[in-house]
Write a structure and sequence with these properties.
The complex is a heterodimer of chains A (129) and B (383). Chain A is mainly beta and 129 residues long. Chain A has 1 helix and 8 strands. Chain A folds into 2 domains: 45 residues, no CATH class; 68 residues, OB fold (Dihydrolipoamide Acetyltransferase, E2P) (Beta Barrel), CATH 2.40.50. Chain A has a 5-stranded antiparallel beta sheet. Chain B has 2 domains: 135 residues, Peroxisomal Thiolase, Chain A, domain 1 (3-Layer(aba) Sandwich); 214 residues, Thiolase/Chalcone synthase (Peroxisomal Thiolase, Chain A, domain 1). The chains are: A mainly beta (129), B alpha/beta (383).
């Protein structure tokens, strides 16, 4: 179990983001992927959690486009990563309405800004990915 | 040990003022107003209340704050807060408390001034480092993704979603208390301002001020009061997740657990239900709940709604008040969902009254399809 006086699950996740990586955990008892990062494995309560770096490839599980006033339409998706976990994200480099369920996507770390630390977004994986 | 079918009944039920209330009205003002109306409905006094159940996004310590306002000293209180279904949960917990003698007269109350103060002020979103950066427009975007997935898997169409809003509007035109007063067409729903694709503003519930209160007591005491009791025949409560990214399957809600539990306790099946009051936060939710509660097969909720079944004159009346889409939706709307079911069982619904309504099912939804709680009410003929 991590020492929460020294490091938090999100803190570790963020360190990976800063290195351009999408990190997740695996419960080594049963090999199941865990996301979002936690101090114990959900369900089993096991503390045998190992950090891994995702290959960053996944499939769009569902998608929406948000229409905020006076802004460009914004994509929001749920993505199933190949390693067996689901996360919320956004697919960039494509018309937000052209993001479709079943589409293959690949992670890219958004640099963030002064308020928002780096975070993972996705782009279409393209052919051969 | 399990709860007993029909051991308690709702004896008083009332809305507060609904719509846009006067400036500076507080959510607790609305709770208190509804409480007095509900007491008047059954003939009990404020001093009879010895159990207080409440939750409200603008009142973090709702049972405590309401008890102070009314100056009552409850023997039992519960502030379970799981979103819009909290009040169905309160009914289940009140039933347990009354059965065990922990209280005898339970008040369940709610109030919100979200239209007056804005939704952002009334229900600030919690920060989640794994969702907030993507700026989903919550809760709408979560329901939009559930709708998109349902459309993908089952061929559900935007027109079928719109049918839910149109049916709700038809019912609302029969309810003098409904916020919406004009007819609505499928085309109007589809062409309205897009909020979070595929949901337009007409696929989304209203944002109004309001609240409500119900009074429960033992079946024995209920018989001596002013109105026909609405007996609690069955209850079911279930949680499946908190954040939409943790929902196991966006096309199946935990109503598929709460519903069978409520039916099991009530010793009833879907075919026994005369009307449904389903939390329609968005047009996709009644479709999911019709499926998950067993009124049609998974994937067939869209065609079921489009068949006219749920509208006035249809075979299964749903949301006869006009629902959260057209009657009122003051934030956590679950208490109002139950009030309509209670009134149908009492036969108080005038032009929208369902004929011979003996069994009414009220289903609450909370969070982003996260909490699902079902209450089945019955008239004395069902005991």
């Amino acid at each position: 179990m991590p020492d929460l006086m020294k490091q938090s699950p999100y803190g570790t996740f963020l360190e990976h983001c800063k290195k351009g990586e999408l990190a997740y955990q695996v419960s080594t008892d049963d090999g199941k992927a865990v996301f979002y990062p936690r101090v114990v494995a959900p369900g089993s309560g096991s503390t045998h959690l190992e950090w891994r770096v995702s290959k960053g490839l996944g499939t769009v599980y569902s998608t929406t486009v948000v229409y905020y006033k006076d802004e460009k339409p914004l994509n929001v998706t749920l993505i199933d990563l190949d390693e067996g976990f689901r996360m919320m994200s956004r697919v960039e480099d494509i018309d937000p309405l052209a993001v479709k369920i079943g589409m293959r996507v690949k992670v890219r770390i958004h640099p963030g800004d002064e308020k928002q630390p780096p975070y993972p977004v996705f782009v279409p994986a393209g052919r051969g990915a | 040990m399990s709860l007993k079918r029909g051991s308690v009944a709702v004896v008083g039920a009332a809305e507060s003022d609904l719509g846009q209330v006067a400036p500076h009205t507080s959510p607790v003002d609305l709770m208190a107003q509804a409480t007095l109306r509900a007491l008047d409905d059954c003939g009990l006094k404020l001093s009879d209340i010895d159990g207080v159940f409440s939750a409200a996004t603008q009142v973090r310590t709702a049972p405590m704050t309401l008890a102070e306002y009314l100056r009552i000293k409850p023997r039992y209180f519960d502030g379970t807060a799981i979103g819009g279904s909290s009040f169905m949960s309160h009914v289940a917990h009140a039933q347990a408390a009354i059965e065990h003698g922990l209280c005898e007269v339970a008040l369940v109350a709610y109030g919100s001034t979200q239209r007056s103060v804005s939704r952002a002020a009334a229900s600030p979103r919690e920060f989640n480092p794994y969702e907030t950066p993507y700026r989903p427009f919550m809760p709408s975007s979560a329901y939009a993704m559930a709708a998109a997935r349902h459309m993908h898997q089952y061929g559900t169409t935007r027109e079928q979603l719109a049918e839910v809003a149109v049916a709700a509007r038809k019912w609302a035109l029969l309810n003098p208390k409904a916020w919406e007063k004009e007819p609505l067409t499928i085309e109007q729903v589809l062409k309205s301002r897009m909020v979070s694709y595929p949901l337009t503003v007409r696929d989304c519930c209203l944002v109004v001020d309001g609240g409500g209160a119900i009074i429960l007591t033992s079946a024995a005491r209920a018989k001596s009061l002013r109105k026909k009791p609405a007996y609690v025949l069955g209850v079911g409560e279930a949680l499946s997740h908190a954040n939409i990214s943790s929902m196991p399957d966006l096309t199946v809600s935990a109503a598929s657990e709460s519903g069978p539990n409520a039916f099991g306790m009530a010793k009833l099946k879907p075919a026994d239900v005369d009307m449904l009051s389903l939390y329609d936060a968005f047009t996709i939710t009644p479709i999911l709940f019709l499926e998950d509660l067993g009124f049609c097969r998974k994937g067939e909720g869209g065609p079921f709604a489009a068949s006219g079944a749920i509208a006035p004159g249809g075979k299964l009346p749903v949301n006869t008040s006009g629902g959260g889409l057209s009657y009122c939706h003051p934030g956590m709307y679950g208490l109002l969902v139950m009030i309509e079911a209670i009134r149908q069982v009492r036969g108080e619904c005038d032009k929208r009254q369902v004929k011979d309504c003996e069994v009414a099912l009220a289903h609450g939804n909370g969070g982003v399809l996260s909490s699902q709680c079902t209450v089945i009410f019955g008239s004395d003929a069902t005991l």
